[in-house]
Design brief:
By secondary structure, the chain is of the alpha/beta class. Helix content is 36%, strand content 23%. It has a 5-stranded parallel beta sheet with strand order 3-2-1-4-5, with helices on both faces. This is Universal stress protein. It comes from Salinirubellus salinus.
């Protein structure tokens, strides 16, 4: 069994994560979809959660989780709590297409965790 953590701040990130995971998932796997709510930041949480539930539940177990706080800290904490084998994130909340930059949350996660982190590109 592989445990995946998808940390998302947008439906676009969730779509890209689903595309990536559909190639890898087995029925024994578990997918946790995390959205961290920050004060004064608009969220697309429901759309992101619906996307993951619709596309991935036929293949693996999917759980959706909302937390409040600092995104990188919450991502790292949940990854450790669930024993994540891999973390999937977007390049940054407001990134244009591709990987032109990586945001502070993604950088903090990359430099903190001991498991692989896959950064999904946004459509150009």
């Amino acid at each position: 069994m592989t445990v995946y953590l998808v940390a998302t701040a947008s439906a676009e990130t969730t779509t890209a994560a689903c595309d990536y995971l559909l190639e890898k998932l087995t029925p024994d796997d578990a997918v946790y979809v995390l959205s961290v709510e920050e004060p004064d930041v608009e969220e697309a949480t429901e759309t992101a959660f619906e996307e993951a539930q619709t596309r991935l539940t036929e293949v693996a177990e999917v759980r959706t989780i909302r937390r409040r706080g600092q995104p990188a800290q919450e991502i790292v904490a949940l990854a450790r709590e669930i024993g994540a084998d891999e973390i999937i994130v977007g390049p940054r909340r407001d990134a244009p297409g591709g990987f032109s930059t990586i945001g502070t949350t993604t950088r903090a996660v990359l430099s903190t965790v001991e498991v692989p982190v896959f950064v999904v590109p946004r459509d150009p």
